[in-house]
Amino acid sequence: MPQLPEELTRMIQIRYAVSQPFVASFLAGGVAGAVSRTLVSPLERLKILLQVQSAGRTEYKLSVPQGLAKMWREEGWRGFMRGNGSNCIRIVPYSAVQFSSYGFYRRHLEASPGAGLPPLYGLFCGACAGITAVCFTYPLDIVRTRLSIQSASFATLTATQRRNLPGMWGTLVYMYKTEGGPPALYRGILATVAGVAPYVGLNFMTYEVVRKYLTPEGEENPSPWRKLCAGAISGGFAQTCTYPFDVLRRRFQINTMSGMGYKYKSIWDAVRTIVRQEGVKGMYKGILPNLLKVAPSMASNWLSFEMTRDFLKGLDPDAPQVA
């Protein structure tokens, strides 16, 4: 039997490796994260600016169109993308770990491969996947938050100061050296996990339920438009339920920055202070731009993930068709 050329053998090995379920989900998750976050970067940054604005600050007491216009006037198109580079650097591994770990946990709870899970099992697997992803990528998330707000008009900055703001690596080093070493890079992680676990769990559970409902009888996959719809519904529902945790996460990530007007001692102290000073609506600051960006973000996230994953799984020479 003649031997295959070395290049062809290597190509077959690579195709087989990337088509394995865990690897395919990992790579597809990374692609999905980068695509979805870049599409909604301006709204993501506006949401953060609204979240971190405390009582008595009015720089971003604006509507969504006014806030976006203010960003454009003060910083141009770079303002829309401020922090997106570090966000993509964070979201690619975060999304990759999240999707691949969800598949890993799911396979261990399914009665048989492809049998599906009851909604509560999906909720549990999603929560575990969210916690896993946060633990791996949290320092990049806190740096993304710092980069998103450091050039905004919360403080008076000269033109020279704006041009010389530190980047991702400089911010990491500065926090490590001046704010307490490694713990500084994980500040706010408890509030993050408290919000991410139910959010990711609800997101995965809702997507699976809605996707199944939107799949025509006798078929295994809905159309791309139905997948987009399922992603938008799941993201909006999960985000609305868990949004106060996201506000707490942002506040704690910049709790040591000067000029912000607050220094919280604990999660409960933060909740009491926010509600007392800003009302219950303070726990929902920034939710409008967030909901406006969640629908296209999660829709493109799920569609990009499924399309990329199915393409990679289809590279397997022994299983060219993906169910």
Automatic annotation (TrEMBL):
Pfam families: Mito_carr. It is a multi-pass membrane protein. One of its GO terms (biological process) is transmembrane transport. It is found in: Mitochondrion inner membrane. Solcar repeats lie at residues 20-108, 117-213, 222-311. The keyword Transmembrane applies. One of its GO terms (cellular component) is mitochondrial inner membrane. Keywords: Membrane, Mitochondrion, Mitochondrion inner membrane, Repeat, Transmembrane, Transmembrane helix, Transport. It comes from the Eukaryota. Its main location: mitochondrion. Transmembrane segments: none annotated. The keyword Transmembrane applies. Mitochondrial transporter that mediates uptake of thiamine pyrophosphate (ThPP) into mitochondria. Belongs to the mitochondrial carrier (TC 2.A.29) family. This is Mitochondrial thiamine pyrophosphate carrier 1. It comes from Ramalina farinacea.
